[in-house]
Write a structure and sequence with these properties.
By secondary structure, the chain is α+β, with helices and mostly antiparallel strands. It is 47% helix and 25% strand. It has helices at residues 2-36, 95-103, 109-121; strands at 44-51, 56-62, 74-81, 84-91. It is globular. The protein starts with a helix and ends with a helix.
Length: 122
């Protein structure tokens, strides 16, 4: 009985550590996105997906544009370099599409752009 309590405690500790790391990544990603906005305080964030293998993330963002209206939900592409987030760009696509076409893609953002450019030129 005591061994199962220890295993449960270790499992819960691992879950807390994982959630804590996810929260840190999310907060840092949100701060990076805010830096790129015309009205940082207007930002509303939704789903956040981070692939730790590719170091890429998608963050659903809605913020005011220069006319003062909200843009609607957009997927922001982010890349983690040396433990620091960089804003790559944004696109109107669904959360699942962002995960598949960007965050889970092992190619670098530069290689993804080159491949898209080549495909459009074909």
């Amino acid at each position: 009985m005591k061994a199962s309590n220890i295993l449960l405690a270790l499992s819960l500790a691992g879950t807390v550590l994982t959630l804590s790391a996810c929260d840190r990544n999310r907060r840092a990603a949100e701060a990076t996105v805010r830096e790129s906005l015309k009205d940082p305080e207007s930002a509303r964030f939704g789903d956040f997906y981070f692939n730790s293998k590719t170091e890429k993330a998608c963050l659903t963002t809605n913020a005011k544009n220069s006319m003062g209206g909200y843009t609607g939900d957009r997927q922001v592409h982010l890349q983690k370099f040396d433990n620091r987030w960089e804003y790559i760009g944004e696109i109107e696509e669904g959360v699942d599409d962002c995960r598949k076409s960007y965050a889970d893609d092992a190619r670098s953002p530069e290689q993804q752009m080159q491949d898209m450019t080549n495909a459009l030129g074909s």
